[in-house]
UniProtKB/TrEMBL annotation:
Residues 125-244 form the Annelid erythrocruorin linker subunit C-terminal domain. InterPro entries: Eryth_link_C (IPR031639), Eryth_link_C_sf (IPR036153), LDL_receptor-like_sf (IPR036055), LDrepeatLR_classA_rpt (IPR002172). CDD domains: hemoglobin_linker_C, LDLa. Keywords: Disulfide bond, Signal. Residues 1-20 form the signal peptide. It comes from the Eukaryota. SUPFAM superfamilies: Extracellular hemoglobin linker subunit, receptor domain (SSF141480), LDL receptor-like module (SSF57424). The keyword Disulfide bond applies. This is Linker protein 1. The keyword Kinase does not apply.
Length: 246
C-alpha cells in the first residue's frame, strides 16, 4: 500500500513538472526542471518519513484518542448533530458508529476507537463539593425578578450494576425579589448524570409545590445550560446559564 501511495505521488509530481515545462521558455526550462525535480524529491522524502511514522503507530497499536480530541468531537457532535438515534451515543465525528447509551462508561469498549470508555467521556463533571451560579429567567410557571441561583453538589453514587449513570444529590439556594423585598429559599434535589448525553437531570424538590425540575447540559468551558421543566407535561418554564464556582 505504501509503494502504491509513493508511486501515485511521484506520478503527480513529475506530471506537474512536465505541464509546467511546456509553459516556460526553452531558454531557462532546463534549470527550472532541475529545481522542480529537486524540490519534489525533498517532498517525497518528507512524505516517506511521515508514512513511516504512521505505519509505526499502527503497527504498535498506538490508536488511543487524546482527551482533547474526544472533547472536541463531543462538542462538534452537539453543535452539528450526528446520525445516531435519540438513545444512542456517537463514537465520534465521521466514525459512522453509534452505540446504545447504556453501554457508555460500563467498562466494556463498544466503539471501535474506544471513545465510549475514554477518560474524557467518562469523567465526572458534577463531583461532590462543586458549585454552579447563575441568574434564572422565567417565561412561565413562575414570575420572579432578579432570581439568583446557586447549585451545590452534595453527593454522588455510582452502582456497579448500572455504571452508565451517576446518581447526584444537590442543594439549590436561590434569592429573588417580591414586591421590593428579597426572598431566599433552599431546596434539596436529586437526579442522575447521563455519561452518553453529558446531561444531568434533577427531579423537582420534595419540598416544592410546583413540580419543576432542572435539566442541565454541558455547554463547555465550565458552563452548563439548564432548563426548568415541569414534571407533569415536560413544559419548559424558563432557563438559566450556570457557570462553575468551586
Amino acid at each position: 500500500m505504501r509503494s502504491l501511495f509513493l508511486l501515485l505521488v511521484v506520478g503527480i509530481a513529475f506530471g506537474n513538472g512536465a505541464l509546467s515545462r511546456t509553459r516556460r521558455s526553452s531558454s531557462w526550462g532546463s534549470s527550472l526542471t532541475t529545481a522542480r525535480v529537486d524540490s519534489q524529491e525533498m517532498r517525497l522524502d518528507q512524505l516517506a518519513k511521515q508514512l513511516d511514522s504512521l505505519e509505526g503507530s499502527l503497527e504498535g497499536g498506538d490508536l488511543g484518542i487524546p482527551a482533547s480530541m474526544n472533547s472536541l468531537s463531543l462538542r462538534l457532535d452537539k453543535i452539528e448533530g450526528n446520525d445516531c438515534g435519540k438513545r444512542q451515543f456517537s463514537c465520534g465525528r465521521h466514525s459512522g458508529q453509534c452505540v446504545f447509551e447504556l453501554n457508555v462508561c460500563d467498562n466494556v469498549p463498544d466503539c471501535a476507537n474506544g471513545m465510549d470508555e475514554a477518560e474524557e467521556t467518562c469523567s465526572n463533571p458534577v463531583p461532590a463539593g462543586r458549585s454552579w451560579n447563575g441568574v434564572a429567567h422565567w417565561d412561565s410557571c413562575l414570575v420572579r425578578s432578579n432570581n439568583k441561583m446557586n447549585v451545590l453538589i452534595t453527593g454522588n453514587k455510582r452502582y456497579d450494576y448500572f455504571p452508565s449513570r451517576l446518581w447526584v444529590d444537590a442543594v439549590i439556594i436561590e434569592s429573588y425579589t417580591v414586591s421590593g423585598e428579597e426572598q431566599t429559599n433552599t431546596w434539596s434535589i436529586s437526579g442522575f448524570y447521563n455519561y452518553a448525553s453529558r446531561m444531568v437531570k434533577f427531579n423537582s424538590p420534595k419540598e416544592g409545590t410546583m413540580g419543576i425540575g432542572l435539566t442541565c447540559s454541558d455547554a463547555g468551558s465550565d458552563v452548563a445550560q439548564c432548563d426548568f421543566v415541569r414534571a407533569t407535561d415536560q413544559h419548559v418554564c424558563g432557563s438559566v446559564t450556570l457557570t462553575r464556582g468551586a
